[in-house]
UniProtKB/TrEMBL annotation:
It comes from the Bacteria. It comes from Metarhizobium album. This is Uncharacterized protein.
């Protein structure tokens, strides 16, 4: 008889799917936020803001 938890595979699959869902949701939110900015600002301004955010993430990430 195996000592392995019979629900381990289900738990791992559940966690993997949860992480994938959160990633998709986060990317969707980001795309919506960028679209909103682009609707009310010049694309150059939006690009500059995103570049500044990317620099901060690289510096502090």
């Amino acid at each position: 008889m195996s000592d392995e938890d019979p629900y381990r595979h289900i738990s791992q699959t559940s966690e993997t799917q949860r992480e994938a869902y959160l990633r998709r949701s986060s990317l969707h939110f980001l795309e919506c936020a960028i679209h909103l900015c682009a609707s009310h600002m010049s694309l150059e301004d939006v690009a500059q803001i995103l570049e500044a955010e990317a620099r901060m993430l690289r510096e502090h990430g």
